[in-house]
Amino acid sequence: MDVDVPPWEAAAGEQPPVLTVAQLTSLIKGTLEMAFPSVWVSGEISNLAQPRSGHVYLTLKDDAAQIRAVMWKTTAAKLPFDLEDGQQVICRGDLEVYAPRGSYQLVIRQIEPQGVGALQLALQKLQQKLAAEGLFDPDLKRPLPRFPRRIVVVTSPTGAAIRDFLEVMRRRWRGADVLVIPTRVQGAGAAAEIAAAIKKAAKLKPRPDVLVATRGGGSIEDLWCFSEEPVVRAIAECQIPVISAVGHEIDVTLSDLAADVRALTPSEAAELCVPSQSEVSEALDGYRLRLVQALKQRALLARRRLDALAERRAFIKPFSVVHDAQRLLDGWDERLSAAVKRQLQVSQQRVREATARLESLSPLAVLARGYSVTRTTKRAVLRSADEVEVGDKIETILPAGRLISRVEEVQSESTKQAPKRNK
């Protein structure tokens, strides 16, 4: 009875065959895919990537192992929920061997959420606790200085993050000094080192202008130290403006929430730290041009004003103003003299008229026409003969002189009496 011998085993008495890598991989591929045509797997999503192609790449893991997985665009487009790192899911799929890399992966045909992973749940609880304390308050965020002179970077000195950061710094701006405080950025004890480095940076003299905490991308486990409470509190309490540049755009740590500014990548952190030297040069050239034009314009306006002043009569004939003032003063003098003369004439005329009226009313004028005034010795003017008696002494006032006489006879027309005679 013939027994089939596997291609990687030799028949009795024969030399074992030598397989090529492609042959061996092909044997593994056929065996594995036939043995697991469809399996259900539960695990936590990690290293989730969703490129523009629409495919989804991720890692399923638990406490003891992990496996790469892929979800093609046709399956991913039908998902009724969003995938995220730390999410517990149940997947149905088949195993596939990728020969060019010699690796295997799970091709997911169906996926259902199972709950939140332990790390993700711990992250959410810590975030709620620190948010309640106000560590993520937007009102506490400080602006970055426009032209920093000293920049401190807390990161691994051998990682890609510091290389990217320094490369962008060299390209954009050379007016700042960069001090790197080396720390571990992954694994046990990394959080304590990062927190200590941040506190150390705040004590440097002179004090740095900006602090950057950064590292490259990774899984939620790789970035976990930047979400631990000591690091978050150190960033929130730091007196220096802090930029957090941890992971890539899709990675969000609690350090990002506590920092004054979040950068999506280490390269973007460098762009946020310093201005572009070419842009500053262009701006300065623009300011210089505007300043020169403004000064030229002001000088031109000043020259025009000076020319206008020089053409004025006061500068061309400086004594003309004095002559004009003298002529004006002479005119006022003539007008004042004429006004005084007119006023004097009017006053004189008024005096003559008043004098004439007084003279017409004066008793002397009446006397001048042939009349006289007679009065008693008591200077009472006589208006009736009854006011005197025979023998009374009277005074008669004539236009020229006075007469003193004595009454010899009184004739009164009102009484019709006989003349009184002296006895």
Account of the protein in words:
The model has no long low-confidence stretch (mean pLDDT 85). The protein contains 12 helices and 13 strands. With 423 residues, it is of the alpha/beta class. A hairpin with a 4-residue loop joins strand 2 (56-61) and strand 3 (66-71). The strands form 3 sheets. The protein has a 5-stranded mixed barrel. Strands 7-6-8-9-10 form a 5-stranded parallel β-sheet, with helices on both faces. Strands 11-12-13 form a 3-stranded antiparallel β-sheet, with no helix packed on it. The protein folds into 3 domains: 21-116, OB fold (Dihydrolipoamide Acetyltransferase, E2P) (Beta Barrel); 121-275, 3-Layer(aba) Sandwich (Rossmann fold), CATH 3.40.50.261; 369-423, no CATH class. The longest helix is centred in the last third of the chain and has 42 residues, at 320-361. GO terms for molecular function: exodeoxyribonuclease VII activity; nucleic acid binding.
How does the SSE layout of this entry go?
Elements: H1 21-35, E1 39-49, E2 56-61, E3 66-71, H2 73-76, E4 87-98, E5 103-116, H3 118-132, E6 150-155, H4 160-172, E7 177-182, H5 190-202, E8 210-215, H6 229-237, E9 242-246, H7 254-258, E10 261-262, H8 266-273, H9 277-310, H10 313-316, H11 320-361, H12 363-368, E11 373-376, E12 393-398, E13 401-406
Parallel strand pairs: 3-5, 6-7, 6-8, 8-9, 9-10
Antiparallel strand pairs: 1-2, 1-4, 2-3, 4-5, 11-12, 12-13
Helix pairs in contact: 4-8, 5-6
Family: Belongs to the XseA family.
Domain Exonuclease VII large subunit C-terminal: 135-344
Subcellular location: Cytoplasm
